[in-house]
Amino acid sequence: MYVARSQITDLEAEIATLKGKVQEAQADKERVEAELNARVESKDKDLAAKDVEIAELKHLEAERVKAETAEEAKKKAMEARDISTSALNVAQNNYVEAQTIVDTLITNSILNATELDEAVAALTDVARAVGHHGGYLECAQHVEEALGQPFGIRHCSVTDQAASILSHAEHVLWS
Length: 175
Fold this sequence. Notes:
The protein is mainly alpha-helical.
């Protein structure tokens, strides 16, 4: 019995030793798992930081491409503006030349028109008649002042001529 007891005691000691080893292995396993979890979390954080950095780099690249595209569009717009300005200058020069020709033709046709000659002659006659009439009226006024009595102007032929010449001039001008 003693041998069995001794074996039981040895087995119990061996069980206790194995339990200690199992507990140590369990503790090592937990420690290793904790380290691995910490490393995984650290790597996850690193990966997240790298993802953010990659996103920032992609955004910067997109902004750079956008800026280049905008610069190219600006250059094309400036070229188009220069072409438009050049075309506008040519059109304006052509317009000025055409307008000069038209103005010259119109001026010549007006100056060469017989109606203009007749109108100028009629206006000259009217101006002369009105001038004579005005002079006669002024003279009549002086006579009235000198004599101190009214001086009639009905007998003046210039007065009648002024009215008929004016009527004739209006007919020439407005017909």
